[in-house]
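The passage that follows is intended for readers who have already worked through the single-chain material. We present the inputs for a multi-component assembly, then the predicted structure in tokenized form, and finally a short commentary. You are encouraged to pause after the input and sketch how you expect the pieces to fit together before reading on.
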Amino acid sequence: MNNINHEEDKLIEQLKQEADASRPGFSVDLHAKICDAIDAEVQRPSLLPTPVVKMPRYTWQVLATIASTVAVVAIAWLAISSYLGPDTAPLPNPGNNPIVQTPVTPDLPAPEPAIAEADAEALAALQDLMASTTQAPGKLGNEMTTMLAEKENALSIERINFSGDRLFDHFPNFVP
Amino acid sequence: MSMPDDSELVAQAKKGSATSFEEIVRRYQVRLLHFLRKWNNVADAEDLLQETFLRAWRKLDQYEDRWAFSTWLFTIARRLSYQADRRQRPEPVDPASGILDREIAMPPTPGDDSLWQLARRELTEPQWTAVWLYYVEDMPIKEIACVVEKSDSSVKVLLFRARKKLAQAIQTDRARTQGDLLQ
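Having made your guess, compare it with the prediction:
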């Protein structure tokens, strides 16, 4: 064991001696060359590009939070309004679902004596009004359709007339 | 008037004093060149030395005071030397794993017959660097660990194995020489 350590000590000593023997001297020229390179580095204008002014990360986080919040609120508002809003709700079609009026049959029991005759007349008038009201959208739709069709026909006739006029105007040009 | 120590010179250089940095160059020029010449020819070693100081100057703001400035310089020099060596020849590949292996011993520099040449032939690059810094530069284990980018205990293992390998290589050389003489 001691022999091994002794060998290693000798080895280390030899390594140190050889390193000292090969140690280079101080070179003034090399020093000057390095110093010149450093001076040139100092005087050289920076090759780095001008740093771009960036918004700090905190600002981006705040903006992202606000944008996502606004988006969530908008989506929620649209969803709720489409669910509850009257504008987008389907319109009832009175033509398809007519109000079924209970037929008044003579078998019905006599009205309560508490209801006066005037009240019965008012009730009948109200039922007529309700019937006319429920049929009104259908009538209005029919009238609008008719009106639009007439308008389209009028426009078509106007276009035909206009084309005819133009053809008539240019007709002499085609005749030799 | 006492000479300013490294930390004072570095502090002044960080403020832009090229004169202070040139004093640092003067202090470490020989030591770094000595180290670099063991791995490169004279011209390449001088170029690498200049590049080491230039890089240190450029990256001076990244230097941390917890390490000695010499440790930082040797770290830069070692990396540059290794990169230059890698550019000159392909990276050794471990045939078993097929991956790049930095731990394979480097070929010796032609024309160098010293014990250090034997060390270069027998030792891996981290082992060689650890031996050089420990026995020639008298650098503490902790600082060597920084240069070779390993833990303190790894550096101790590197040194132990390096000594064993070298002693064994010397014995083998002696046995071969005696055999040659007997023939």
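Commentary: The interface with chain A takes residues 16, 18, 21-22, 25-26, 29-30, 33-34, 37, 46, 49-50, 53-54, 57-58, 114-116, 119, 131-132, 135-136, 163, 166-167, 170 of chain B (CB under 8 Å). Chain B is about 70% helix and 0% strand. How closely did your sketch match?
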